[in-house]
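Sequence in, structure out. First:
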Amino acid sequence: MTKDEILNMLRSASAPISGEEMSRALGVSRAAVWKAVDQLRQEGYAIEAATRRGYRLAALPDRLDAAVIACTTDGMIRRISGYYGHIEGEYLQDADGAGSQHARTKERFPAPWPRFRDELIVRLSEQPGEHLLDINPGFYCEYGTEHIRPVFVSRMPRRKVTGPGHKETIKGAAAADEGLLTVRKALTELKLDKDGEIKDYYMPSSDTLLYEAIKAQLRRFGGDGKKAFAEPFYKPKADGTPGPLVRKVKTTEKATLTVPVHGGAASNDTMVRVDVFLVPGDGYYWVPVYVADTLKPELPNRAVVQGKPYSEWKEMREEDFIFSLYPNDLVYVEHKSGLKFTLQNADSTLEKTRTQTSAFAYFVSGSISTASITIRTHDNAYGIPSLGVKTLKTFHKYQVDVLGNVFPVHKETRQKFR
């Protein structure tokens, strides 16, 4: 239990916390605290220790693991796998950092070099150059620390183009002239609008008896469809007796991007990529490309416009195309009024928000409902869930190698799938 309690204390602490404070708060020895901290480090938590200040949680396991994986060769993987396959158990790091010792068998596993783990943890911090001389003075006095920069996690772009061509629900196109589609919706999903009418109900006048009965049932339960129709609901007859069982009714929704299916339409499913355009004097735009589009001879050319149906989206010219973005492609964005990143892990001790004018980040996805994209920092610690691209001052694409070095991608040629 001590290990989990130590982790919770480090996560909730706003400043470094000493081993003495933790041992006193938990009623355990200093040695037990040190052992718990070492176990957490073995599990991948980057915990920094500073003399007369205490312990601080610097990074979560995924960031540490990414750095270790990037530095690992196939030969090392085979040796370590074989070693741990032969002997299972806990290893505790030596006090001098020269290796680890098995708690039960006392067998030793050498580190790549003395204090390797301590050095790696410092390299993962925001200002790695500050403490490297204390850990490995023999190397860094000669090599220098002025050019050392924080570790940058390299991610592989996902250029998968497989997946469903459309969602399963097939919708009628009866209201297409009004920019609407009809879809059958379960009674449990119905809601009341601000006027007390059923939201998006299709043609209430076509069967007023049924409409009024459903509306009355919703009102009895405060507009909560799940509660109102938890039990079977039957259409009332004119004489008041129950008629046929009703499970779904027709509703309408705004038409965006759809795929023709069996005389109706279905919403696009998997977005493969977004194609980015720079329109001179107007800013950046992006065109969504779905799995269904990969089966067509021509690529779509309408860019998303917030709050507008597909028919009113802006048509793009091929000469204005600059690059395509797949999930995990690296971008550099700059906004004159600032970029507000929010913390992704609510339990983290890092600052909840971070504002900066520019940033390198990985592209995650696009949303046609808000005409925005989602981006995240290299270590997944911070993200922007809805970033509008039209008013960005700078929007560039980069490549990143396995060591975290980044290189600009110049204007691309738009690639077709067929």
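Second:
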Amino acid sequence: MPRLQGRRILITGAASGIGRRTAELFAAEGAALTLLDCNGKGLAEVARETRGLSIEADVTQEASVAHAVEQGAAAMGGIDGVVNAAGIVIHGSVLDIGVADWQRVLDVNLTGTYIVVRCCLPWLTKAPVATIERRVGAIYSCQQRMPRHGRHPDDCGPSARSRSVRAEAHCRAAGDRTGHLVSHQY
């Protein structure tokens, strides 16, 4: 039996890169997929290849994500896994990258992940198991890195973001369904 048979996974950034490859691998392992991306043409192609449900959505817009999550959960009968693969990279020095571009990176890479997790968490808490690690019912956070010297604009973000989500997921798995983030770090 495929390892992900019966799993219901939502993947952001599914039209290309890490999101696309993850969708292909998870489909091969038997998962039911809801695929989100703002690139409708690329998304449709991946959906055909993986038999996933494609939903054009912008991860920086909570209403767009909330609608997509509800559609995906309805189609799959719930959600018990999330892959946050949506992300952007802007190449250049600090002097070359304007504040608006910097804000867009933060909006997609950090706030987008927060919005997706926030919208999916009610479904994940209904799953028998929900954790941040690579286990059944997991939330997986992927982040692409720039292949160059220096620090990526969101290097300080993903690990901090993952720690807070991990803390909440562990708290929820232990029976705390309040939705409050815990204050300790892992």
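Remark: Confidence is low (pLDDT under 50) at residues 131-186.
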